[in-house]
Amino acid sequence: MTGARAIGRSVSSSARRPSRILGAVCLTFGLLSLDCRRLTAKPAPRPSTFEAAETLYDGGLKPGWQDWGWGRHELGNGPARIDFSKYGGWILHHDLLSNRFGGFVFRMLAPPKFGTFLQVRLANGQDDKSLPVVVVGPDHARKLSDGWQEIYIPWSQLDPNAAPFDRIFLSAKAAVGSEFVQLDKLLLSRPDPNAPDSVAAAAPAQRVNLQVNCRAPGHPISPYIYGMAGNALDMGATARRWGGNPMTRYNWQHGNAYNVGKDWYFENQRTDDYRAFLAINQTGHMASAITVPIIGWVAKDTQSYGFPVAVYGAQRAHDPNRPDAGDGVRANGSEIAPNSPKITSVEAPPEMMQKWVEAILAQDQKTHTRSVRLFILDNEPSLWNANHRDVHPAPLSYDELLDRTIRYGTAIRSADPQALIAGPAEWGWTGYLYSAKDMVAGAALRPDRRAHGDVPLLPWYLKQLREHERKTGKRLLDVLDVHYYPQANQVYSGSADAATAALRLRSTRSLWDPSYKDESWIAEPVRLLPRLKEWVKQNYPGLAISIGEYNFGGEQHISGALALAEALGRFGSEGIDYAFYWFAPPPNSPAYWAFRAYRNFDGKNGQFLGRSVDTQMSANVSLFASRDESGKHLVLIALNLDPSNPARASIALNGCGSLATRRKFVYSAEASSIVDQGAKAERALDEVLAPYSINVFDVELN
């Protein structure tokens, strides 16, 4: 993983007839007709009271909100005074928000002659135009005393697709005078989870029949599929990975130095001490996975950099804070050949890594614990010739990967006979099938692969290591470890328009579905999890499988939450042994709540259970089931992947026992957290699943 990575609802028929006047406004702003239908639809019933989720302005700006102009205005010491003449307005800015709110509420005192003059819209720094413009009309207003009005704009009109936003525009849609308009008590209200908005309510519920088959044998769910790289103490994560591009050159012996490679001007920097990482994980009861460098070089200090301008001359770009640190590329775009790895690094032979493992074990003996569960053989080696080309400019070959695995794996095994060794930590699709040497020449030519029987890299690699064990009696690989990121356009990003959100969810099918042709340059079925299991079975039976990095993007959008929930469900149902999210879901983001749906859905450590149960799903609803060893406790997670239509799900519990009670917890586009919808004594599970929602059912059986 690079440092850069370390980073539509339907409406009722009565709402489909916009007025000609507001239709003209839509044309003026160049909006799509669907958005125009949404913004001119009759608002949802007005709540009698509003609970503030975010207060923007009340006599003055509130913490987290900034005044971004633009017309003449006066703030503080009372209501904001805004001059809307000359089509002026006001922008309020906040760090990116992804919550689904109930609505935008504010009080306004405007000259009566201005009439219907105000319009409101949301935007974000990457997209200032796709969200609807809402014209504030009589349906939005309630009269107060002394000429003031309370304006309420339902969230279904401002943000129908639950897109992230970081600013609110209030502007004039028509020419008005220069008299000040007063605005006060601006807030984003909390949604009412028991009163769905009019857009969702108008959509008909689609009947779906789902099944949980307790008669099928099922299998244990590995607790280690709930891992990640970032700090995860409040999310119920079970494992953490010390990894990423810089760890390829981590020097445990010299001040915790590493090199960030191509991600930032090939600079050596200081990182945290690995011992602190292990201690945090032990305190949080999380297993640790440590990346062990096998590239042969590690950072020699925390100051050097790979392509000094003083040595190599002018370059295309340089660190703005360190002008002598160049990017290793000439102004004409050609790459500079590095002189010597010793500019930044020192040699790191297998013996150095053996001493590291020995040091870890020596500390473990003092504490009577085992601090490292997995030792991972480096990070994305087929990208070394790009990400770390200052020390490894030559593309990696089949033979070099095997040689380094054997030499460094032997060193780890010698230091710790009980170690679990994982590799080769390849980045993605081409890294599974070809060497870096092949990719430099082109996959069509693939000279390295052809020289090895035209066998894809990973099956060849596994077969050779199995043969090495047969000959020497030394097992040097215990876990097949790969990384996976969706390759379809904009999926692994923050983009959350309707088309990208839908593509993001379809892309999760590449994990398991043999009928799904990946909608990217891959353009063929990936079926990653069954493919890896087949390669292990055919070439090195008995190995565990790890998805060492994955992320489907959209962390701040409900589609990203659903994609993460789908991935976690598939890791469990497919019997994967380890998985580590990159990096960590931002606090209180949709992705955060998706992870919590599996690990702490009720705030009291309510979790998806330890044994996977077979299920029957539908086209738009995924269902994952788990049970405890007694068989009397089930936890089900149902995902409605339809952005517009609720689903009425009948969930049959075949051979599970009779239903006693169920608790239901929901995270949806309308929610700012997982909502407890209460417990019921039931005889059957017949449930409404909101559009784009994660639904957790905590079920007790007789």
Q: Total strand count, please?
A: 36
Per the principal axes of the C-alpha atoms, what is the gross shape?
globular
Query: How would you state the average pLDDT, rounded?
Result: 90
Under the CATH scheme, which architecture of the largest domain would be assigned? Alpha-Beta Barrel
Q: Any idea what the CATH superfamily of the largest domain is called? A: Glycosidases
How many helices?
17
What share of the residues does DSSP label as strand, in percent? 25-35%
**Helix-and-strand structural type:** alpha+beta
What is the CATH topology of the largest domain? TIM Barrel
Low-confidence stretches: 2-43, 195-202
- Rounded radius of gyration (Å): 28 Å
> What's the structural domain tally?
4
| The CATH class of the largest domain | Alpha Beta
Main beta sheet strand tally, sense and closure: 10 strands, mixed
